[in-house]
Amino acid sequence: MAMEQSEGHFSPDLGSLEVDALVSEVAERLHAVAAVNDRMRELLEAVVAVSSGLDLHATLQRIASAAADLVDAEYAAVGVLAPHTHGLSDFIQVGISAEEELEIGGPPCGLGLLGYVTDHREPLRLEDLTQHPSAAGFPHGHPPMHTFLSVPIRVRNDFFGTLYLTEKHHGRHFSSADQQVVEALAAAAGVAIENARLYEEGLRRERWIAASREVTTVMLTAEDAQIALITTAELLRDLADAAIGMILLPTGDGGLRISHASGEASDFVTGELIPPSERTARLLAGDSVIIEDMREDSEVRSTVREAFGPSMTLPLRSAGRVLGAVSVWRRRDLPPFTADEQALAEGFAAQAALALRLAEGQHDQQRLAVYQDRDRIARDLHDLVIQRLFATGMMLESAARLAEVPEVRTRIGKAVDELDATIQEVRTTIYALQHDDTPEGDEDLRSKLLREGAQAVGPLGFRPSIAFVGPIESMIGETTGRQLTAALREMLSNAARHARASKVEVCVDSTVHIDAEGRLTHSPVAVETAVDSKDSDSALRAAGRPAVLLTVTDDGVGIPEGGRRSGLRNLRQRAEALAGSAWHEPGPNGKGTTVSWTAVL
């Protein structure tokens, strides 16, 4: 003991130092484990939060927010890959205020560093993104960003988009642990996105099925077939998220005519003729036609194609028979129709075609019932009414022979004559009931117009020539056809009374377009060349609405100044009632007169 105290100081035990170091190391490892556990708990909470809803856009918003919280980032975003392109169709971001977003001027389109990440589809971690070779800088008003982390999001091994994170707080860099956590979140996000997509697809299918039931109900219950077809076009347009929906009917020569339209520019395309082509042949054979961008397709001849982009046209096919087609157009720069949308639309079109067939059969049954009722009424009139009238007439004739007063005999004779006239009228009515003289009879519009020309031979002293341009029978409706026939009759009558002409030429053109005043627009080629492709409204106005043009040209003396204009006024009133117009001008080479009359189809 004396020796130990004589040394003058205390020396620590080496064994105690090793124990302290071991305790410190264990404490550090326990702290790291606790930190890992905390991060795992945060990751699990983030996964639960991401999967808590079924709305796709809200799910993407939760993914971005959860990722920013997990790695302590200032900004986060999810970029969704656009189909058929390398750009972005959607960009959901957190951290940037509404004021900053407004000053920036909209979401990115997927170029520069974002385009590089989209093309390579691998995780990328940078200490300063501005030094990357693909960096293209920031737009005005964009906040500065340096640290960067991106991880691809995959849905069933298909690339969906990218999760971006920038500006880790306190000037730190993103670590490999941050990358692992975000990769785990991205994997969970892929499952959540798939669930949201399946939910939206289920809702979309439910809408299509409900619309198929609705179109069947409308077809079978609507008293007016025109209303039923318009409703079908409206339903298809809404379901397909399109700007315009159309019903196309065959013209009989291999072409199609837009008979009904709903949505933007419907007034401009209704009645438009689609001439025979390879595509119309495919449609009439029962095949669908999908166009990604009509502006870049030279085969599309519509005068308003500059205002639209993707289109989908489907045949109305039932029991091997193609009744027509339905078509939807989206605004330009919108995504094309997907295969799923095409499949749903084809099912809708098949249901609509079946409903149309059933409606036709129902209409035929109703017509048959009307004809049967007419036959019954005709038999009753003949067997009962006429026989009774005839018997009454004979009784009166017998009474007339017995009458002694001449005036009585005279009055009885007049009564018998009236009965005879009544019997003739009843017989005429019976004939009319037994013979269908409605507009659905054999005489079409072309025959009626040719008949008007033949009837003008007497007043004119010669036969006028009549030419037709376009399928007038299928493009001109019943109301317009009646007014057109009346207008031609009046124009030929005016020429016979006032023109003193030796030649009259008539032309009926169903391929023209007119403006809001009822006057002819430029040709479709001139319109498409002159209109800026970015100004769709100007394109629609310049194209005009499909119309019919009736012109009567004579080589007579012309219309004198100050002469009566009652006939021209009547023509103009007829045309204006159909959104058209009527006017006159000197004939070819200043000789005679050309009278023009237009009406919207």
If you had to describe this structure to a student in words, what would you say it looks like?
The chain is an alpha+beta fold and 601 residues long. The chain has helices at 2-6, 14-50, 56-71, 98-104, 112-120, 176-221, 225-239, 266-269, 278-284, 339-402, 406-434, 445-455, 457-460, 472-475, 478-499, 524-530, 536-543, 566-576, and strands at 73-81, 88-94, 124-126, 148-155, 158-168, 244-250, 256-263, 273-274, 289-291, 308-318, 321-331, 465-469, 504-514, 545-554, 582-586, 593-600. A 6-stranded antiparallel β-sheet has the order 8-7-6-11-10-9, sandwiched between helices. Strands 2-1-5-4-3 form a 5-stranded antiparallel β-sheet, with helices on one face. It has a 5-stranded mixed β-sheet with strand order 12-13-14-16-15. Strand 10 (308-318) and strand 11 (321-331) form a beta hairpin. The chain is elongated and about 160 Å long.
Structural class: alpha+beta
**How many individual helices?**
18
Total strand count, please? 16
Average pLDDT, all residues: 78
Uncertain regions spanning at least 5 consecutive residues: 1-8, 32-36, 437-442, 523-534
In the sheet with the most strands, the strands line up as 8-7-6-11-10-9
Largest sheet: 6 strands, antiparallel
Assess the beta-strand content as a share of residues: 15-25%
Distance between the termini: 126 Å
Structural shape: elongated
User: Which range best describes the helical content: under 10%, 10-25%, 25-40%, 40-55%, 55-70% or over 70%?
Assistant: 40-55%
> Cα-atom Rg, whole angstroms?
41 Å
